[in-house]
Amino acid sequence: MTTSQSTLPVSGERYAPDKELARRVRLCDIEAMRTRVSSALTFCLLAGFVVPLAAQEKSEVAESIRSLELKWTESYKQRQVQILSTLLAEDFVITVEDGSTYSKTGYISHSAEPSVHVEVAEMSELKVRMHGNTAVVTGAYHERGKSDGRPYEYHDRLTDVWMKTGGRWQVIASHYSVPVK
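Given the sequence above, the corresponding structure tokens read:
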């Protein structure tokens, strides 16, 4: 019996159908790998677009909060009670330098006090940290003026907490303290 050349094992291979099966399995593995790599690259590209957009949106909101802080400071300085009323939440509470706390009504009453004349009210080093619909602001505050005709001056550190409710941002809590030198 003679064996044809095409059915003889080549280089130690056993039988041609096994070789064909192995080739097909390798092709399937290669196709699966291509699909995985393609999916991973697509995900990375999409993430590359989404993450900067989210960061940009977050920085735009932080800038908006920074603007509200400045509006609040200017409204306080100018005794603009109506504007203060819209910026402060109904359950707003502030703790001032001596440890006293005031509600929204108490703070606005103090701000409108005619015996207090604020000459300088300025903020610096403002940092805004976003946490969903809440923003925490830290920074430095400087105020100078006259109270009952006597000069005063504060150099404080501040923490303000803003929350977005009903589609608008309002400050819900504020804390001012004098740094120990």
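Confidence is low (pLDDT under 50) at residues 1-6. Try to locate this feature in the token string yourself.
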